[in-house]
Amino acid sequence: MTDVAQTRMGRMVSILIKKPGRRVKTGGSVATVESAKWVGPIHTPFAGEVVKTNMATFSEDILIANRDPYEAGWITLIRPDDPEAPHRPLLEGEEAFQAYVGRIDELDVSCFRCED
């Protein structure tokens, strides 16, 4: 989950994560998140197998993704079906940065971690 996503959804209330061994399709859901403002899926950009989840951390601290989405608030580790496949729609480097900044502007998101 990105910082923009957690900022837009608000305080997380619950999360249901697919168990290790489950297969997911491109665009499929690896988890369902509920917040005070939103209930919905967390999608994966590629097909693969869930190999590890962070459910133990969320069980101890449901707000971990709100405070630390890029480190302690990770959700799943997925083994891609085809690691050699082109990684589109994943972007890299400056292209990813510019797309992210554009999305923040488009959504008019204001959060301190989204700043330079």
Brief summary:
By secondary structure, the chain is of the alpha+beta class. Helices cover 28% and strands 27% of the residues.
Could you characterize what this model shows?
With 116 residues, the chain is α+β, with helices and mostly antiparallel strands. It has one domain (3-85): OB fold (Dihydrolipoamide Acetyltransferase, E2P) (Beta Barrel), CATH 2.40.50.100. It is built from four helices and six strands, in the order αβββββααβα. It has a three-stranded antiparallel sheet, with no helix packed on it. The protein has a three-stranded antiparallel sheet with strand order 2-5-6, with no helix packed on it. β3 and β4 form a beta hairpin.
Rg from Cα: 15 Å
Shape: globular
Mean pLDDT: 89
**Share in helix:** 25-40%
CATH class, named: Mainly Beta
Integer tally of domains: 1
What would the CATH topology be? OB fold (Dihydrolipoamide Acetyltransferase, E2P)
Strand content: 25-35%
Task: Report the major sheet.
Answer: 3 strands, antiparallel
Structural class: alpha+beta
How are the strands ordered across the major sheet? 1-3-4
CATH superfamily: RNA polymerase II/Efflux pump adaptor protein, barrel-sandwich hybrid domain
Beta-strand segment tally: 6
Low-confidence stretches: none
Task: Give the arrangement of secondary structure elements.
Layout: H1 3-9, E1 12-17, E2 23-24, E3 29-35, E4 39-43, E5 48-53, H2 55-60, H3 64-67, E6 76-80, H4 93-107
Antiparallel strand pairs: 1-3, 2-5, 3-4, 5-6
